[in-house]
Amino acid sequence: MPAPAGLLAELTHRCPLACPYCSNPLVLEARAAELDTGTWMRVFSEAAALGVLQVHLSGGEPAARSDLEVLVGHCAGLGLYTNLITSGLGLTQARLQALADAGLDHVQLSIQAAEPASADRIAGRPGAHARKRQVAGWVTETGLPLTVNVVIHRANLARVATIVDQAIALGAGRLEVAHAQYHGWAEVNRQALLPTRAEALAAVRQVEALKRDLAGRITIDHVVPDHYARFPKACMGGWGRMVLTVTPAGRVLPCHAAETIPGLEIWSVTDHPLDRIWADAPAFNAFRGTAWMPEPCRSCDRRDVDFGGCRCQALAILGDARATDPACTRSPDHHRMQARAAGTDTPADIETPDSPPAYHYRTAAR
Ligand code: SF4
Ligand code: FES
Known about the structure:
Keywords: 4Fe-4S, Iron, Iron-sulfur, Metal-binding, Oxidoreductase, PQQ biosynthesis, S-adenosyl-L-methionine. Its cofactor is [4Fe-4S] cluster. The chain has 366 residues and is α/β, with parallel strands linked by helices. 34% of the residues lie in helices and 13% in strands. It has a nine-stranded mixed beta sheet with strand order 7-6-5-4-3-2-1-8-9, with helices on one face. The structure holds iron/sulfur cluster (SF4) and FE2/S2 (inorganic) cluster. FE2/S2 (inorganic) cluster binds next to helix 13.
């Protein structure tokens, strides 16, 4: 069995922001349940032995962990490439330097919009955007490569060009523009977030044009919205193929939303070594490869391209994680995905200071 290339380490669910598009679960893991430093170090050692090359340190906000520098140093000592996925809050210039000294390879900083008032409203935290700009400056001063990432939804997609300008101004070499995925908390806010078909397609065209025009100045990774695509994405690069996710409490998942799938037997790093989990955990074998697939996936020429799409999306929309992803135009249930999108074909609820969208903000894990 091929080794996973990457490990997403959700170090904590604690987070200073309250984003309505958060894809973390509805019920967050409390600080008291988090793995301790020694256990995370063991997990990273097991990951390196298994063949993992890249560790993505995420959350919540990974800087909420006071042992972040120690964990980065341990990964670097193992030869693992480390990517810090951060809101920026909780980092200081001294802490960034300490992380760089410990061997951190890359920083991925989220922003919510280019305009401070809008960005802070989406993040649910006054002053957050100004702090992120400051952190971006520290990252580039430290000499670490910077990627900016932004989640796109109906409140910010019409202004995506300003976000691209801002990423360039912040010194990012790469910008990830990802349309919101309606997992976890984001589903609670779907009506406030989901753009109309016309809005989404206009944004897709604009991002693709910017990607071409700005090639050489900034690399734009564009994650297009499932709701209006012809075929689904190979979620996680295929179930149990490339990536594993470890939750703050140590449960090991094939994707970050896998805990929503009823009956999936999920193993923990507190009970099993990582190589055993990767090879034998029932959750990883549930949708690995193509043998589990129903028609039309089973005989489809794209079954080794997208692996039947997203199991969690099939569950959320059809109530059946084994079904063909309804984002696929070949799915017999594609009309249910279309109906879901059509429910928002109303005039754009573009956020303004006078008419903020009716978000349900996240409350943080304790
Ligand atoms: Fe992918 Fe299945 Fe659709 Fe074929 S039928 S394109 S394998 S989701
Ligand atoms: Fe779980 Fe796509 S998010 S398979």
